[in-house]
Design goal:
The complex is a heterotrimer of chains A (about 250), B (about 260) and C (about 250). Chain A has about 250 residues and is an alpha/beta fold. Chain A has twelve helices and eight strands. Chain C starts with a strand and ends with a helix. Classes of the chains: A alpha/beta (about 250), B alpha/beta (about 260), C alpha/beta (about 250).
């Protein structure tokens, strides 16, 4: 069985929970076991849905001493001192062993254009911090292109791209080598093989979107993809391990 | 643990009958798909151990119903028994009559209704009546694209009006409207739910089984919009018994379609 | 009576038809006769609504042996070999005597940025092929301006305009010499007259939007416009003849 590292997992109590869904950290760990997911990059629900700073602090508490979770903070450029400045963010990340950030520009209501992101992204680039966000959070293909092309030295992991975006996504992947695709909801028939054949397995990162996404489906998608074992290993864990090893905080 | 192990070992689902009740073939106007012709889906089915898939021709849903159903018939003929057809009526074309596809054995096993891309036509619109009457007479399944609560309600109305046909609620048993679908299944014995949705979280299939019973849940993939393995993996790794998984993978549908 | 060439007409079996609408090729030819429309630039309903590749070929079949129809193909930038490469698309248009193309960015989910359609636009510029696109259905007025500025060597004919866009389209016409507007839905009171006065009759191209638009209304609009005979001739057929006459495919 392949070993997986999940590049998109949310911990903590979230606003909307439906019966039957995984809710607690134990639920998620049980699913990780069932799906042979060794580790998961985790951010906190409250950092997305409620209070970013408090959510990031909760993540530290909830993952304390648990090596299966690789810490990720939610972040945003600070206006009027609302959030940490970029340098302080980098220092705090180093102190607390946080190795990546996740952006929610749509949820948190800020622009991803360079005028708003400039200083913040410059620091992330200097530290080689990979930046995660979903396609929908970018707001538009125009915003995503702006982000990718303005910061070519930053690796962006874009996940949850629906098949409906393929005709926009594929040209972006060709144009912007710093776009890495999260596999979680990239479920178009033969899609994993297509990306591997045309762009290389190096451009895909396994993720689940737990607890709202399906880990069982996500692992099956890679296990049964019509690609080589070596390519599967890269997608399942190799690529994300390489990115995280390159972080220089 | 049999089906979990298949996934762990990346082995095909041989030895279990797998019938995918929700498939598509053909070009998609709104977005780029991967391989989407008959040959490519049968290749995937061979790799995965899928016995058969029921398909409609996507461009025919949006456009020329006759051409679309004719292409479905061609593919069913080329892959007899592996690719089974849904005949898809168009509510705007007065000459539309899908009965010819069932007049002889052309591989058609049901009807597909996709009103929301046919000018937002309600699923229970009288312009689909000829197809419903045909399905009722032949006791055929009718697969509805029924994502929203109001779409599910209209599909339920068809189940009420035509008690001998079988309604498959496509998607809706696992969307945000799933409680609606469950209520409809409890009210009408001739309503079933498929699993064709990419965004349902883990635990959702188990939830659906708990609410409507194991016999009413059917494996559907939405191939070629999606890769069929996505949902197969979800079922294989679900917290269900092997017997329950076998019913979802194909035994329920085999009985429903009379195969 | 003025002689008209219709720059926007769709042939073929479409999904949504209503009783009484012109639905067949014969219906359209009858309307063209009734409205003194000598020829029509036509694309295929299948290419627009459901299956672009098949629709383009269906157009060739349906217009075979009928010189009243001037062929137009719908364009799709191709990735992973989904459709013809830009070069092959133009070669096929040449082979099948297709003299213009139509963009469907919204319908087909692709971007109008140079990294996506740049090659198609370069080839269109090289052979002076006009490119057609429908407002609202496929893009906004702001995007019309961006499109014309991004590809200044391509002539764009924008159909399905309307009085609500006057304040946006006026400046775009003023600043983009390569922008032409279709008259079909440009029905503001004295709109044609004002347009001719401020921007010149050279920038309007007669179209009907058949079979969903009204040819009878469209010819009346130009026939009764309070502009000179010479201006009417330009709009009715002269401008489109000039644009298509420049094509060197």
């Amino acid at each position: 069985m392949l070993n997986f590292i999940d590049a998109r997992c949310q911990l903590g109590r979230r606003g909307i929970v439906r019966e039957g869904e995984p809710v607690t950290k134990s639920d998620i760990l049980e699913l990780m076991d069932r799906c042979s997911i060794e580790k998961a990059i985790a951010y906190h629900a409250m950092a997305k849905e409620g209070d970013m700073k408090a959510g990031n602090d909760l993540l530290l508490q909830e993952t304390e001493g648990d090596e299966r979770f690789i810490r990720q903070w939610c972040a945003m450029p600070s206006t009027f001192g609302e959030f940490m400045g970029a340098e302080e963010l980098a220092e705090q990340m180093k102190k607390h062993h946080v190795s990546s950030i996740r952006l929610f520009p749509k949820t948190h209501g800020y622009s991803v254009k360079p005028y708003a992101m400039g200083k913040f992204m410059d620091v992330m680039a200097q530290c080689h911090v990979p930046v995660f966000l979903t396609y929908a959070e970018c707001g538009s293909e125009d915003n995503l292109y702006s982000l990718l092309s303005s910061y070519p030295e930053v690796n962006f992991i874009i996940s949850d791209a629906s098949y409906r975006e393929n005709r926009k996504l594929f040209p972006l992947m060709e144009q912007c080598k710093n776009l890495l695709l999260g596999t979680g909801n990239f479920v178009v028939h033969g899609g994993v093989k297509l990306i591997c054949d045309y762009f290389g397995a190096e451009r895909m990162i396994f993720d689940t979107g737990l607890p709202m996404g399906s880990a069982t489906a996500a692992v099956a998608l890679i296990c049964y993809a019509e690609i080589s074992e070596e390519e599967k290993q890269l997608i399942a864990h190799g690529n994300i391990e390489r990115l995280l090893a390159d972080v220089k905080l | 643990m049999r089906y979990e192990n298949l996934v762990y070992e990346q082995k095909p689902f041989d030895g279990v009958y797998v019938l995918d009740v929700h498939g598509h073939i053909g070009f998609e106007q709104g977005s780029q798909l991967g391989p989407h012709d008959g040959k490519s889906i049968v290749h995937t089915m061979d790799r995965m151990g899928v016995d058969a898939v029921c398909v409609s021709y996507s461009p025919g849903l949006r456009g020329d119903w006759k051409r679309g159903n004719d292409i479905t018939a061609q593919v069913c003929g080329a892959y007899r028994g592996r690719v089974l057809g849904y005949a898809a009526p168009n509510p705007f074309h007065k000459d539309c009559d899908v009965s010819e596809y069932f007049a002889e054995d052309r591989g058609f096993v049901g009807i597909k209704i996709h009103g929301n891309i046919q000018g937002e036509t309600p699923e229970n619109d009288p312009r689909y009546a000829h197809a419903f009457e045909l399905a009722n007479k032949r006791k055929l399944p009718v697969l509805f694209h029924a994502w929203m609560p109001y779409e599910i309600d209209r599909a339920a109305d068809v189940a009420r009006q035509y008690p001998d046909l079988k309604v498959i609620i496509g998607h809706g048993g696992l969307t945000f409207a799933r409680e609606h679908a469950v209520a409809v299944c409890k009210k009408y014995d001739n309503v079933y739910c498929d699993t064709a949705i990419s965004s349902a979280p883990d635990g959702s299939i188990e939830w659906l089984v708990d609410k409507i019973g194991i016999d009413r849940v059917l494996y559907g993939s939405d191939m070629t919009f999606f890769d069929c393995i996505h949902t197969m993996g979800k079922i294989a790794l679900a917290k269900l018994t092997d017997e329950e998984k076998e019913k979802i993978f194909g035994l329920n549908a085999k009985s429903l379609f009379g195969l | 009576m003025l002689r008209f060439i219709d720059a926007r007409c769709m042939l073929g079996n479409r999904c949504i038809i209503r009783e009484g609408d012109p639905n067949t090729k014969e219906d359209i030819l009858e309307l063209m006769d009734r409205c003194h429309i000598e020829k029509a630039v036509v694309y295929h309903a299948m290419a627009k609504e459901s299956e672009l590749p098949g629709g383009n070929m269906a157009l060739v079949e349906e217009t075979k042996d009928n010189d009243r129809f001037i062929r137009q193909w719908c364009a799709l930038p191709s990735y992973f070999g989904e459709y013809l490469s830009a070069e092959d698309f133009f070669a096929a248009m040449k082979e099948h005597h297709v003299t213009s193309m139509r963009l469907l960015p919204k319908t087909c989910g692709y971007s109008l940025r140079p990294h996506v359609i740049g090659k198609l636009m370069d080839l269109a510029a090289q052979c002076r092929m006009p490119v057609f696109i429908s407002l609202f259905e496929e893009l906004t007025s702001d995007e019309v301006y961006d499109l014309c500025k991004a590809y200044p060597d391509v002539n764009f004919v924008v159909g399905n305009t309307g009085y609500r866009e006057n304040r946006r389209l006026g400046p775009a016409v003023e600043q983009c010499d390569n922008l032409y507007l279709g008259t079909g839905n440009y029905v503001a009171h004295c709109g044609v007259e004002l347009f001719c006065k401020y921007y010149g009759a050279e920038r309007l191209v007669f179209d009907t939007g058949l079979p969903t638009g009204s040819a009878t209304a469209a010819v009346s609009l130009i026939g009764y416009a309070e502009i000179s005979r010479e201006e009417k001739e330009l709009i009715a057929h002269g401008n489109i003849e000039r644009l298509l006459g420049e094509v060197t495919l």
